[in-house]
Amino acid sequence: MTRTMTRSQWAGLSVLLGLLVFSFMGMVFSPYSISQQDLNAVLDPPSMVHWLGTDHFGRSMFTRMAHAVGLSFALGVLCVVTSSLLGTALGVWAVWGGKKVDHALGVVVNILLALPGLVVVLLFAAIVPGSFWILYLAISLVQWVEYFRVVRAITQNVIESPARQSSHMMGFGRWYQFKRHIWPAIAPSVFTLAAFGGANAILTMASLGFVYVGIQPPLAELGLMTVELFPFYSDAPWLLAQPLVVIALMVFGFHLLAGKRV
Amino acid sequence: MSVLLKLTDVAVYVGDTCLLEPISLELKQGVPLTILGQTGSGKSLLAQAVMGLLPATLSLRGVVEVFGKPLPLSERQSLWGREMVMLPQEPWHALDPLMKGIHQVAEVYQHVQGQSYQQAMAGAAQDLQQVGLADSAHKRPGQLSGGMAQRLAISAATAGGAHVILADEPTKGLDVSRRDGIVRLLQSRSAQGSLLTITHDVAIARQLGGELLVMKEGRLVEQGKAVEVLDHPQDSYTQALIAAEPIAWREVARPSRDQAAETVLMAENIAIARGGRTLFEGVSFSVKKGEVVGVVGDSGCGKSSLGDALLGLLPVSAGKITRSNNTAKPYQWLKLYQDPPSAFTASVSLGTLLNDLVRLHGIAQERIAPLMTRLNLPETLLQRSCLEVSGGELQRFAILRALLLDPVFLFADEPTSRLDPITAKDVTHLLVELARETGCAVLMVSHDPDLVQKTCDQVIAL
Amino acid sequence: MKAMLLKRALQLVTVVWGVGTLTFILMRSLPGDMAYRIAASRYGQDNVNSEAAALVREELSLDQGAFAAYWHWLLDLLQLNLGHSLVSGAPVTEIVNHMLGHSLLLALAGLLVSILIAVPVGLLCAWRGNPLDSVFMGLSSLIRAIPVFVLGVVFILLFALHWNWFPVAGFGTPAHLVLPALTLALSLAAVSNRVVRDSAKHTFQAAFYQFSKVKGLSAWQTFRRHGARNIAVPVVAFFGIQLVSMIEGIVMIESLFSWPGIGHGLAHAIFARDIPVIQGAALVMGILFVALNTLVDMLCLWIDPRGVRQS
């Protein structure tokens, strides 16, 4: 994979790795916790003590941003891994498992596609407010469908291709056919979908935080921080800018990594 | 006899690399001119250069004179439709997929000739009737067969009144039986002007007559009257090209069947239906060991489906197929595909694919080298992927893979139709020879009756 | 056509069932005595007594078994018996009806502006090529990376708070519509202009496009007769895909700009745990989604009569 990566894909990877390092440093080395208040130092600009300033409760923005980025990455990675594995496996199974399997999976997919993804996630989020795991579940549930549809369509073509048919006739088993024919055909699309999926998962969590129904205070979450810091846009614009810039950077990084559109 | 089109030292370059070496020719009123050559010989570039359709990355040198005047590109473009026109290679792609056939002809009368909508529609309807498309006038291109689409394209191209017609592989992808009609139509449309045809097909060059140019790798190798060049070719390349026509092949079919040979397969009264339509029925034959059986017929008649059914890839709707050889393993019933690159995965090198096969079936390594030599496959081929070798090499590699499994039956689905004629001849002969030597039965599907006649012991016409 | 309508009808049933089931689970999963809580939010903390709670319990069939209650719940939903808001006490149908109008206004305005941006930009990029193409495509990748609510916040900061050109949030005058619609339009156009450009590029290079010129038609005649329609096919099909982004965008933008539409209502209701309104809003959003999808399907069929859109 790395051999064929373009320059912009490397750029995207660097942005994401940079943010990851930032998050790791903040979580491990910061002397402050995300909820530690210091009402004598509210809305401080960046300084040697607080590298990114303090928020309206005097909490360390560096610590909070690091945790928020970490949370976003954790969700993004979990969702990508879950949904890509599930979607790819089921997509191949739908083609190989015969008409009945395909039909049953088709019904499930149509149910999930009946409503826009964000609305499904919102309804799930309402069931267990503020839960990270329900967000993970809901987002993965919405996202695997995308992999499923793409993988199924490509696999269908590969199954019918002379190359796969020829391997089959020469006595090669299913694992070989998957390894040599199906995986090489679907891998680029799965990779692209995964990169966009990571961006979407992070975006969805931030969106829910932004409308106040996602992760709840006092936890640090990028969308939530945007709303919390919005009232101070004129007193401390550098604070509001932080979550906004970081969300955009994360999404941009994933988009660059994706390389092409699906 | 006036000169309609005159090219003086016309050459095509990409950057400083020459794709088409300087060429000069004259297209005269009433004398068709044919350019003959294989794919990649630069002949399509020549037609594009004349029309002014070269992609922006290519540059044209030399002088193109139309009706006696040297005309720059923009002025040649203003002649499109009214004075000269080019027929596309693939009519399906050259017709608007969303527009009904009659409108694609009528719009030329309306917008190029300036007629009213009613007049234009009437004119178009008459044109389509002339070429036998009256019933299909309101169909979209996707609903037409290749031959019908080409007739529609010719009607649309010539409605603007152009008499100088450039035709780039006008019969590509058409059945042999449809070719003559298209060529005659082109001849009648260009009767008042002239016709410049580009083709790889010697038969078409013969049929068109007039002047002939033979090209190889961007270079002119021979030029003269078609009859003379084709009957007494001087250049060795022209000779090879003519000899590669199936009709000129030496006979390798055995005159009589070897009754003693054991039967591999029996088909009794089989019928095949696809998409609710019966393709053929009541077909019976038997295939003996080492026998080459040919199947001919127009496209869509079910000849490929027959082969797939014999291999068990498709169900038959009636009849019975019996495999007499019970000791043969399933993997000894194999298929050669029409389009060699599509039959291989490009994800790994050909060598890896070969190793996979050797390991799976425990094939002796020492069998490979002699067979590769026999098939004229260089050792270096194994380091490349299927996209990095030529179609002929890949098809020979496919034969190698098949033969290593000691097949009892091989279904060759138009194995050489995508190859250049000279390569096609070599591959076909190799396949037939090796099948005879190893005792493998071959079912060879082809659209070319001559090819089957010359190579097969038994012919099934569908 | 028939198959398409049947498919959409099935989707509608799925929407109703999905929304009903999720809101039912939601209601059951709330902690504490449901009836008491609901009564409290309905009549105010001071006026709650066991009598009021019992009334609520009966009204929402809270004392029945889970399955019976579920059945009852779905039946109510099928009859469009959506109940009353737990917060304001107003009938949900009325509330939702009111919100729908506002959302449609925003959606149509956003879509219209996005078309006005995406189509000319996409065509221009395909026609002129580089460097214009690279500039616009780079710009749209940049906008695509900015989440729609971040885009909205930036617009508010710049155009409302810094320059005071437009009101910050709310609803009333046409000026209130400008920023929300522009935010939606830009986020949609940043994606769809690329589809227009790709489709146009593809069409301009197609053999039939060249053949039309070779037949003698002028560049403009060729574009009008063979370009426009062929370019439109994938673009219109893409609108179907983009409906998801549009509805998601509406949720975020309405919340940000306090635009009194369904998205705003839904987010608010979830925050306030106002289950009847959650149900009503999600339902209408789903129905809107199905209706718009059907519209796109029909448009596709009209532009490209060869076959129904595959999706």
Automatic annotation (TrEMBL), chain A:
Q: Which organism is it from?
A: Marinomonas hwangdonensis
The protein in question is named ABC transporter permease
**Entry's Gene Ontology cellular component terms:** plasma membrane
Swiss-Prot/TrEMBL keywords: Cell membrane, Membrane, Transmembrane, Transmembrane helix, Transport
Where in or outside the cell it occurs: the entry states: Cell membrane
The way this protein sits in the membrane is described as: Multi-pass membrane protein
Task: Fetch the InterPro entries from UniProt.
Answer: BP-dependent_transpt_permease, MetI-like, MetI-like_sf
Q: Which PANTHER family does its entry note?
A: D,D-DIPEPTIDE TRANSPORT SYSTEM PERMEASE PROTEIN DDPC-RELATED, OLIGOPEPTIDE TRANSPORT SYSTEM PERMEASE PROTEIN APPC
- Main subcellular location: membrane
Source organism superkingdom: Bacteria
Give the family from UniProt: Belongs to the binding-protein-dependent transport system permease family.
CDD domains of this UniProt entry? Answer: TM_PBP2
Molecular function via GO: dipeptide transmembrane transporter activity
UniProtKB/TrEMBL annotation, chain B:
Coiled-coil stretches are none
Q: By its UniProt entry, which Gene3D superfamilies does this protein fall under?
A: P-loop containing nucleotide triphosphate hydrolases (3.40.50.300)
ABC transporter domain location? 5-242, 265-462
The UniProt record lists the keyword Lyase: no
Recorded hits in InterPro entries, A to Z, give: AAA+_ATPase, ABC_Ni/Peptide_Import, ABC_transporter-like_ATP-bd, ABC_transporter-like_CS, P-loop_NTPase
Record's keyword annotation contains Transmembrane: no
Q: Name one GO molecular function term.
A: ATP binding
Where's it found, cell-wise?
A: Cell inner membrane
Q: Give the record's membrane topology.
A: Peripheral membrane protein
Mainly resides where? membrane
List the SMART domains hit by this protein, alphabetically. AAA (SM00382)
Question: A cellular component term (GO) from this record?
Answer: plasma membrane
Keywords of the record: ATP-binding, Cell membrane, Membrane, Nucleotide-binding, Transport
Instruction: Report the family membership.
Output: Belongs to the ABC transporter superfamily.
Name under which the protein is recorded: ABC transporter ATP-binding protein
Q: Which organism is it from?
A: Marinomonas hwangdonensis
Automatic annotation (TrEMBL), chain C:
Q: Which Pfam families match?
A: BPD_transp_1, BPD_transp_1_N
User: Any idea where this protein resides?
Assistant: Cell membrane
InterPro entries per the record?
A: BPD_transp_1_N, MetI-like, MetI-like_sf
The UniProt entry lists the main location of this chain as: membrane
Q: Does the keyword Translocase apply?
A: no
Against Gene3D superfamilies, the record matches this protein to:
MetI-like
Identify the keywords attached in UniProt to this record, alphabetized.
Cell membrane, Membrane, Transmembrane, Transmembrane helix, Transport
Give this protein's Gene Ontology molecular function annotations: dipeptide transmembrane transporter activity
| Transmembrane segment boundaries | 9-27, 104-127, 148-165, 177-196, 231-257, 277-303
The answer on whether this UniProt entry bears the keyword Membrane reads: yes
Topology within the bilayer:
Multi-pass membrane protein
Query: Belongs to which family?
Result: Belongs to the binding-protein-dependent transport system permease family. OppBC subfamily.
Q: Which PANTHER family match?
A: DIPEPTIDE TRANSPORT SYSTEM PERMEASE PROTEIN DPPB-RELATED (PTHR43163:SF6)
Entry protein name: ABC transporter permease
